[in-house]
Structures are given as C-alpha cells and as structure tokens.
Write a structure and sequence with these properties.
It contains 20 helices and 27 strands. The protein has 722 residues and is α/β, with parallel strands linked by helices. The N terminus is likely disordered.
Length: 722
C-alpha cells in the first residue's frame, strides 16, 4: 500500500519534508537487525589484505609489502576506531552502535578478531613469506645462526652506528617509569647489580631512524638481514657494564592518537592543531604487543605502569612491528615484484606531431576529458593542467582544494609560481587531514609566504572534495576550466591509488565550482548547483532520491539499476534506500574496497543486491554512482564515501558525467568488476567475505587491474603506430 502511495504522489520530485516523512514511514517496515557492524567489517577488510600476503602466487616482495600494509592499517584502526570506542565507554557516552549493540560488546568482538588476525599475520610472515624470501635469496636471520665473522662485522656496525644513539632508561626509586611513545619498539631489560645482587629494570627504545633490518651481506642474488632489535639485544652488555643481563623482551605500545578540536572556540586553527598534535603523543594506551616469551614479572610491571588490561595485551611471536617489512619490500629485485607499469598519457592530452606538450586548455575545450589513474598519467594531466595554468599569461586565477599532498609536490610549486606571477590564487588547505596535519601546516605556511590566499574551510567541517578551477581570459571573455577528482592532488599516491578525474570547460560546472569556492572561502551560502551534488546539505538526499527513482521505475516496469563503487558503505539512510530498491526488484551492485554495513542476499530484503570487493597492486579509491534512469543513465564521480563523516561532517562533491563515451567507459568497468569471471571477494548475508580467484579448473580468474593496464598499453602502442 505504501509503495502505491509513494509512486502515485511522485515523491521523487516532492518537497523535502514530504519525501523524508514518506521514507521514514517506509523504513519503519524494514527489519531491525539489517546492518553489519562497521568495526568488525573493517577487520574483515584488513583480513582481505592479509590474504594477499598469504597468496603464494604473488611475487614474494609484494607479499611482504601486503603484510606491512596490514600492520600499518591495524595500527591506525587501534589509534582511531578502538580509541574512539574506549573514549565513549570511559566518558559514559556508550550509545548503541549501528547494529544496536553497546560499545563494550563491540569492543569485545574487536578484541577477539584482532587477536586472531594478529596471530595469523605473524604466522603468515614466519611460515609463508619469510621462507619464500629465503628461497629467493633474501634471508632474515637470527643472531644465534650467525658465525663469528658475521657477528664481528655487526658488532662494528653496532658500535659505530647504533650504540651512540641508544638511551637506556633505568626504573628504580630514583628513576620513575619512563614515558613510552606510541608505536615505538622497545626492549624491556632485567639486570642484576653485580655488587648488591639487586634486580633492576630498564627500558631501551629501538631507534626508529635506523634501518629496521640491518644488512649483513648483499650481492646481486642474495642478501641477509638481522632485525635491529636482535642486534641491540645481543650487545646489551655494552649498555650495562658491570651488570648481569638476566633477560630481555620486545614490546610495543599503541596509544589513542585521534584528535578533537573545538573549532568554534578556537581563534587560530593552526595553533590549536599544533597544540593538539603535542597532546596526541601522550594519549592513553590502548594496545600492548609483547613477544610470546615475555615472563610474568616483566609483563606485570608493564601492565601496572602502563595502566593497561590483559584484554589489551597481544602476545605474538617475534618480530613485532612488521611495518618494517616496507623496507624489505623496496629491495631492488624486479623478479620478486609486480611487473612495472608505466602510465600512459590520456589520449586527449597527448601532444601533436610537432609539439612536445599538449595544450591542455585546447584539449579540454574540445570536450570533457575523463582520466583514469594510475593507468593514465597524473603528471601529464592534473599536474600539467596546473603547471600550464601557472605559466599561462591569460590565466587570471586558480582556486584549489588540498587535502593530502606529498612533501615535494609540484602541485604546491605550481600554485606558488602562479602567485609569484601575479595571479589570484586560492588554496583551501585541509590541515585536519588525519595523520597529515603536521605536513599540511608546513605547506599552508609556505603557500601564505608566497602570496597565496590560504583558507581552512568551514568551521566544524573537513574539506575533502577534490576540486581545481582555473579562470582564463580568452578574447575578452572569462572562461572556466575545471577539474573534479576522486583522489588527492598527490603525485606520489597517484601512482598506486586508482582514481578518476574529470576535466571540463562546461560553464555549468565552472559556475558550480565558483559558487562552492565562494562558500568555502567567504560567507556565501549557495545551495543551487547544476552538475554537482555537494555534502553536507544535499549529497545524501540527492543520492537517496536517485535510488528511490530507480525503485519507482522498477515498479512501473521501466529499466532500473543502481551501481555504486565506494571505499566504505556505512550510512544507514543510503543502505535503507538500497534495501527499498532491492525489494522493488532493482538490481543493485555495490563495489566496495573496505567497510560494508549492508547485508546482501537476505530474502525479502536484499536478494537483488550484490557486493564485491577488489584488492590488488593498486588501491581502489575512486567513487562512482550510476543510475539506469529508464535508459538515460545518470552517472556521478567524486570524493564521497557512504559514511556519516563524509555526508554530515565534510564538504564533498560529486560531478555528473555527461559524455556518452565516458558513461560507457564507467559502465564497462562495472561490467568487468562485477563479472563472476573476475577475481574478487564476495560478501554474504552473514558478513563473511569469500575470495573467488580460481575457476573450477584452478585457473586464475581475470585480474581487473591487469586488464586495465593491458588496455592502457594497447593505447600507447596504437599511439606509437600512428
């Protein structure tokens, strides 16, 4: 009955209040337990990363890299997500999570899964990847396996490079227990005073600025390494002369490193952020990793002094902190890495026969250009766009958002060059980008010194959209050239992050970006956008309306389909809209890299929803939203994930793709990603992910990223032939 009333009333075009009221009435009929827990789902994502490290068919050094990524991901998960749950519990704000369970119960589930995954991670290194590297001639050895000659050379290195920077800290009545910094690797050392016979305790931090794996020998085909903590542990006598070293054990602490800044009470955001970065170092402990041979006396001391519970202790076989495998993964052994891929220049931006560089503006004037990174080059598209704008005497102004960028970014330099050339340059720098705050403060100040107008967005909101606008004078008329992307303006990550970027000279997009930049830098409040959907005011509501239109089309017997590619699918309103569409018979395909709180395949709720995940050599990072729209597809790309923070607490922007060739290109990409013959993980209604990467004959399924690289290579060869 409700279906008929919504359809007949045409609520897809109704007032917001009427639409919201009808949707709330409909959602009341959906089952109560219809979401998967987001934290547990994130751990499932990291398990998929771990499965790549366990995959014997991948090159050995790439497997080591995936194990390092797993470790780094898990650190951030504890520092932010687990820390947030603990903060809610401690402050009494223990409101139910999205699955209706208390944070205490969710924390228990996380602890169980995280313990299991960390043990599996350690086993993947010791039993799978380490032996695979050894077979290839790269060995990580123990001190006990070394001969006298090797030990002698390592001792010389220890004396020259390690001993001078070590700082043993005693713990006794005259020396309180030292501060243990977050993510630092440490040795807990028990010693006995030879004169008094009294046992003492000391803490020794493994210097993070030194190589984690010390090279014993290296040649063309073989290399041997010793973990730095083993080198230190086996030369402790030099640090405690006259003492008897009784025992030593490695441990590592994780602290709460999330930050909360009251912007509306802060006059100087940069100063407040710098102060908060200092406080971050002293966040409360939330995880203690120890080696599995640590004795009870040492552990009890750490538990007491760090004020941490046994549930927060992770007892693991060494070595701890496998982020150090990033160093090994950089070893120059091409046969142990993925084959190299050189990005090609997008066809529209390839230079003519008699020119070294394409005229970017002339290319964009011919029609919208859609660039797919890293298969197509960032340097010859986004970077070239901004560098040409900086040098072009006809360019009057450049406006750009900066969320994360590299330390030696040519994007930053292009903005500086433009400002020094007398152009009007606006940089909206998001200095609150998590864990990049300090770097962003540095670049914000550098831009200001060069004369760039630097602003920090709206109070209470992070500016996450990826936008660049160039204003150029042409024959006495001002023309806008726009770029809307799904990824950061970062040349380094553009080589490993999969993203799309749209270049357009369309006046509607130019006006939309002008209005949006005015809102972000000034006091304008503009709600009218033509080709953009903008958060936090309209993006969620716009997507829900588009999904609901597909539902109504399906009921009316018209072509209907929804396809969404995101990093995370968490927002309940969007998920409920997809459930409603599924119940009406709309095929829904969700391609998600990380978290997914949606339950696919539930009879009567989501049997028409399919959820797939693809992980590989590149980080799938683009966001795409495609709607069949009765045969006239509406397709958007942009920066927004389906999460509360993106839709409620960030400035995000999606732009509509209008060129038929680009709509077809994105449709073909979805066809490939969702095909049963493509390697991917499939999500079940119980929240379990199953990897499908071999066919019935044990032959490998299609690798989407390999397919895209091959397509890029064919374009390059075709260009060379021409």
């Amino acid at each position: 009955m409700l279906e008929t009333s919504i359809l007949d009333s045409g609520l897809g075009d109704a007032d917001d209040d009427d639409f919201d009221e009808a949707i709330e009435s409909y959602d009341a009929q959906l089952p109560e337990h219809r979401y998967l827990d987001r934290e547990v789902s994130w751990l499932a994502f990291n398990q998929r990363v771990l499965e790549l490290g366990e995959d014997a068919r991948l090159p050995a050094l790439e497997r080591a890299n995936f194990l390092a990524i797993f470790a780094n991901n898990l650190d951030e998960f504890f520092m932010v997500r687990v820390a947030g749950l603990k903060r809610r519990i401690m402050t009494g704000l223990a409101v139910p999570t999205n699955v209706g369970r208390s944070p205490v119960d969710v924390l228990a589930d996380i602890s169980h899964d995280a313990h299991r995954l960390q043990l599996r991670h350690a086993a993947a290194w010791t039993t799978l990847v380490e032996p695979a590297l050894a077979e290839a001639g790269i060995e990580v050895v123990s001190w006990d396996s070394l001969g006298e000659a090797d030990r002698g050379r390592l001792y010389e290195y220890f004396q020259a490079q390690v001993f001078p920077v070590l700082m043993p800290l005693a713990v006794d009545p005259a020396h309180p227990f030292p501060y243990i910094s977050g993510l630092s690797l440490n040795l807990a050392v028990r010693i006995r005073n030879a004169r008094t016979g009294r046992q003492e305790f000391a803490r020794l931090k493994v210097p993070p600025m030194l190589p984690r794996f010390v090279a014993i020998e290296k040649d063309a085909g073989t290399a041997r390494y010793l973990p730095l903590e083993e080198l230190i542990a086996n030369n402790l006598g030099d640090l405690f002369p006259g003492m008897e070293v009784l025992d030593h054990h490695a441990f590592r602490l994780t602290r709460n490193e999330d930050m909360v800044i009251e912007e509306d009470e802060t006059e100087n955001l940069i100063q407040a952020l710098e102060a908060e970065l200092m406080r971050r170092r002293f966040g409360p402990p939330i995880r203690l990793e120890i080696t599995d041979d640590m004795d009870d006396v040492t552990l009890d001391l750490l538990l007491k002094e760090l004020d941490i519970t046994e549930q927060e202790v992770y007892r693991l076989p060494g070595p701890l902190d496998l982020r150090g495998l990033f160093d090994l993964a950089r070893i120059d052994r091409p046969e142990l890495h993925f084959p190299p891929h050189v990005p090609t220049t997008a066809l529209a931006f390839q230079p003519g026969d008699n020119t070294e560089r394409a005229d970017i503006f002339a290319s964009i004037r011919k029609g919208d250009v859609l660039v797919h990174h890293p298969y197509e080059s960032f340097a010859t598209s986004v970077q070239a766009f901004l560098e040409q704008a900086a040098k072009d005497p006809h360019v009057l102004a450049i406006k750009q958002t900066l969320y994360r960028t590299s330390g030696d970014s040519p994007i930053i330099q292009a903005l500086i060059d433009a400002a020094e050339a007398g152009k009007q340059v606006l940089a909206l720098v998001e200095i609150k980008a998590r864990f990049d705050e300090a770097a962003n403060i540095v670049w914000a100040r550098k831009l200001e010194k060069a004369g760039v107008h630097v602003v920090y967005g709206l109070v209470g909101l992070k500016t996450h959209c990826k936008l660049a606008l160039v204003i150029r004078e042409e024959n006495g008329v001002l023309r806008s050239y726009s770029h809307v992307g799904t990824g950061n303006y970062n040349p380094k990550t553009s080589r490993i992050y999969e993203d799309f970027g749209l270049f357009t000279a369309d006046n509607e997009v130019g006006r939309d970006l002008t209005r949006l930049f005015n809102e972000l830098s000034g006091y304008a409040i503009e709600k009218k956008f033509k080709r953009l959907l903008v958060a936090p005011l309209h993006l969620r509501k716009g997507l829900v309306r588009l999904i609901d239109k597909e539902r109504r089309n399906a009921i009316a017997g018209k072509p209907a389909r929804v396809r969404i590619k995101v990093n995370s699918m968490v927002d309940e309103q969007v998920i409920d809209a997809l459930y409603r569409a599924s119940q009406a018979g709309v095929p829904v395909e969700v391609w998600v890299r990380g978290i997914c709180s949606l339950k696919p395949g539930v009879p009567g709720l989501s049997e028409n929803i399919t959820v797939r995940s693809i992980l590989g050599r590149y980080l799938e990072h683009s966001r795409i939203f495609a709607f069949e729209n009765n045969g006239d597809p509406q397709v958007f790309i942009g920066s927004a994930d389906m999460m509360h923070r993106n839709l409620d607490r960030r400035v995000e922007a999606l732009v509509r793709i209008v060129a038929p060739a680009h709509v077809k290109e994105l449709s073909n990409l979805f066809d490939l990603a969702m095909s049963d013959s493509t390697s991917s993980w499939w999500l079940g209604p119980d929240g379990e992910w199953t990897r499908h990467h071999r066919d019935a004959d044990d032959a490998p399924l299609v690798d989407l990223q390999d397919k895209m690289m091959a397509k890029s290579l064919r374009r390059r060869r075709a260009r060379a032939v021409r």
